[in-house]
Design a protein that fits this description.
The protein has 5 helices and 8 strands, in the order E-E-H-E-H-H-E-E-H-E-E-E-H. It has 190 residues and is an alpha+beta fold. The chain has one domain. Strand 7 and strand 8 form a beta hairpin. Helix 2 runs antiparallel to helix 3. 27% of the residues are buried.
Amino acid sequence: DMSYFYMGWVLDKCGDTDPQIDVTTIFQIMQGLPNNLVLDDPTAKGPYQFISLFTATVGEVISARGSVSDPSQIQPASFQVADKDKNVGPYGNLPMGNGNGSTIYRLREGIERFLITDINNPGAGSKAQSEIWVMADTISKTVKYFNHIPGGSNVLYMDGHVEFIRYPGRVPVNEGMALFLGTLLDRTRD
């Protein structure tokens, strides 16, 4: 269903003020896949952490699919690759993994403890489950694809509460995420 998106990893550096990267990187990886993806703005930038996670996962899935000889094992091999924590490179000298590390973690109970950025003051940089988003209504920079007009999204958090966030707002209902998700999802809906 294209009306919502689920993210199985903790994305804590995807705000519009976090490091951004050119989104054409995504399409360089996906050139061989059948699609009708066209960038509205080829110079656009999106959240480095999200794009790094996406490119790492897609690259590993493509590699895993190529190494499987039995066609019935292609999908299970892809799921095994996707169901893992991902190591991502830094942005310059800034670590882009969770908690200023190099790993983006899969969502799981107790994952918030990996988001501590200062071990000497764990309360200062930690996040509660009430701040870790899990899924949301699909967003886009194109208004017709919003579930809620004039624009916004219901966001489900790890503690189970749901909050409506107007677009543009905070993560995951911000411009960078809308550009990335919109570019991928808008083209597959038309």
